[in-house]
């Protein structure tokens, strides 16, 4: 979906397809028909944005075969779908039974990560609509803190590669709890020397909330460092106001699952690297917890738990409520639908949930004064 800010900035709204399992081109094409087009139809819009996740094997397949790229672009157009942003954080295996720390590998100390990201940027330049101003690729915040080595010049190589492209595509580093770049303070410090024409920040509002960061202060910090918010990932974290309460602990236990890492903080980082560790005594339980578990934007989890939707709403207001838009790409990223305690029972349930999240985001943007652009 497309919007126009009062200052004239075109703003793109999409949902991220890393919620779907697909690691070859056939799987990606299937998900367009199985989910993308049905979500668009449920929303009643002529055009729906996708934040495509193209795993390393898919990207390799597309880079090697220009006809495959044309096929993907044709399928997107035929189904009323468009792409201006890619999620390049997971490399592959994002729907393995156990992902956890593997999602941070390979990290930004390796040429494999650089080549993958440049391949994504090249593919996005070919997939973007002709009238798109620019594209974006979100990526991991350098790496997991205990595994990190120096980038060895990979970020400089990345920027130089992006500068050589015919169409502009920027790469956005996504602060996340437990990583080398965990907060916007670390982003401002560790990305101070990058080429800011091509590199910036992907602000994920679930991660922002788990870090107990104030949206206004965080955005001011990035602006002072000269770092653009290249992309916003609209997401909400799980929140427990009284984690020592037995009913609350029982509710939190229902969110413990083996696939993804659910970093947990109490009032501020540092915290526990996963929810099960927090429940086992990794956090005192004397103040509210926020958990890196992406929950649906439009509906709170069952009481006594809540979500950090207010942080998302405040961030949207900071980005779009002023005289100037402070980003132009918004991606709804709830990749955890299938591991929720009340996971959708079938495709129809997932389609309905994704559409409801997008509708919440759409209404939020309109309330902030953006105009929805229709065909």
UniProtKB/TrEMBL annotation:
Xref: InterPro entries: AP_endonuc_F2_Zn_BS, IolE/XylAMocC-like, Xyl_isomerase-like_sf, Xyl_isomerase-like_TIM-brl
Gene3D superfamilies: Divalent-metal-dependent TIM barrel enzymes
GO molecular function, one term: zinc ion binding
Record-linked Pfam families: AP_endonuc_2
Domain of life, source organism: Bacteria
Domain Xylose isomerase-like TIM barrel: 64-224
SUPFAM superfamilies for this protein: Xylose isomerase-like
First and last residue of the signal peptide: none
NCBIfam families: TIM_EboE
Protein name according to UniProt: Metabolite traffic protein EboE
Organism listed in the record: Amycolatopsis mongoliensis
């Amino acid at each position: 979906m497309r919007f126009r800010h009062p200052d004239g900035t075109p703003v793109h709204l999409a949902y991220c397809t890393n919620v779907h399992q697909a690691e070859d081109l056939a799987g990606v094409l299937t998900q367009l028909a199985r989910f993308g087009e049905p979500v668009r139809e449920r929303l009643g819009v002529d055009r729906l944005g996708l934040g495509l996740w193209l795993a390393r094997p898919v990207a390799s397949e597309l880079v090697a075969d220009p006809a495959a790229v044309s096929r993907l672009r044709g399928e997107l157009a035929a189904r009323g779908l468009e792409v201006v942003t890619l999620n390049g954080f997971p490399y592959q295996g994002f729907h393995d039974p156990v992902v956890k720390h593997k999602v941070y590998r390979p990290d930004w100390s390796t040429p494999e990560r650089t080549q993958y990201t440049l391949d994504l940027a090249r593919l996005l330049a070919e997939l973007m609509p002709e009238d798109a101003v620019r594209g974006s690729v979100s990526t991991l915040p350098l790496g997991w803190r205990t595994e990190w080595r120096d980038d060895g010049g990979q970020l400089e190589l990345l920027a130089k590669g992006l500068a050589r492209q015919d169409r502009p595509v920027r790469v956005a580093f996504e602060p996340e709890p437990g990583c080398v770049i965990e907060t916007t303070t670390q982003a401002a410090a560790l990305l101070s020397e990058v080429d800011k024409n091509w590199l910036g920040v992907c602000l994920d509002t679930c991660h922002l909330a788990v870090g107990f960061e104030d949206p206004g202060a965080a955005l001011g910090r990035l602006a002072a460092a000269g770092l653009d918010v290249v992309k916003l990932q609209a997401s909400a974290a799980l929140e427990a106001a009284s984690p020592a309460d037995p009913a609350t602990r029982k509710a939190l236990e229902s969110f413990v699952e083996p696939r993804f890492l659910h970093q947990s903080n109490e009032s501020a980082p540092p915290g526990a690297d996963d929810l099960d560790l927090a429940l086992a005594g990794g956090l005192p339980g004397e103040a509210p917890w926020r958990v890196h578990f992406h929950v649906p934007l439009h509906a709170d989890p069952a009481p006594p738990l809540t979500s950090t939707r207010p942080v998302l709403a405040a961030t949207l207001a900071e980005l779009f409520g002023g005289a100037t838009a402070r980003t132009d790409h918004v991606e709804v990223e709830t990749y955890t639908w299938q591991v929720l305690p009340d996971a959708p029972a079938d495709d129809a349930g997932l389609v309905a949930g994704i559409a409801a999240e997008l509708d919440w985001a759409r209404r939020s943007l309109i309330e902030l004064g953006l105009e929805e652009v229709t065909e």
